[in-house]
Amino acid sequence: MKNTVVSKLLPIDSSPSAYSFNENYVLNLSVDSEIYDEFLHAGLEEEKIALSPLRDLKTQCPITFQLGECARKQVFEKLGAIYISNAGEFFTDGKDIRNFYLFIARIIGAIDPLYGALYDVKSKKPDDQRIAKVTISQTSGFAPMHTDGSWLANPPDAIGLLCLSPAMKGGENELIHTHQIREVLKNHSVEIFDILQRPFYRESASPGFEVSVADVEAAQLPVMEDRNGFCHIQYMRRWIEEGHVKVGKPLSDNQIAALDYLDQLLGDQNLIQEVPMKKFDMIFTNNHTILHTRKPFEDATDETQKRHMVRVWIKR
Predict the structure, then answer these.
(1) Which CATH class is domain 26-124+134-178+271-315?
(2) What's the pTM value of the predicted model, to 2 decimals?
(3) Beta strands per DSSP E along the chain
């Protein structure tokens, strides 16, 4: 029998005392009547928000701009996330909240155009994620923890998610910070951490773009690495498995063991922070330090009441 790192692993202790990351990395920001009135009075439409220089946006909505600056600092300087949970107390129109959401995203950084400025996320059939590159965002079933654009050499630096309509049941967002994962790995398995820092092949999930075997072979990326003083992660297991199949180089026993161990950690409720998403809530996260997912959900039968999210990718 092959000697793998599996036999060397200790049971995982991921209780709060097992790691030193005690800071709340999700900052709750609020909309107030002053921000709401200022933004609506400016009458900014999606195209103008997307194309205007930041100085013009600041001139037209200085108070709202300050909220965006606070969000940018939390996401990029503190490597965390911001959650705006009370916008629905003021906004009543879906178009207005989309514009407000895009405005905050623009202040955080440049909009990544790969999926368009704002990408509508709705469940589609079939629910089998393995069919024709159906992504987890298009399903209602189990969704593993992941980062967005994990197959890209330069993935988005931050991501946003706006809730236009929550699921009938379930669908809560879940987050986990890489610092927590690194602390547990350092305490329990340096071997696993070492394997995860080595390159893995990745299949591409870019819309409408098929990559060749040569492209996949040339674009190996580690799952985790220490970069600029923080632990950076790029992970979606599906694209790793499909990448290794595509190049004809199956994952080794040690690689499988390392990914299994990582997945076990990413499913540990002691490490997960749940973020409920009610109507018009929005969240922005650092895509290098925070993995995300959502719980399985049940949708309403009425098409107008189905779960509807809006995603944005952001570059620093």
Answers:
(1) alpha beta
(2) 0.89
(3) 26-29, 81-84, 110-111, 119-121, 158-165, 169-170, 173-177, 199-200, 221-222, 224-227, 230-233, 273-275, 282-286, 290-294, 297-298, 308-315
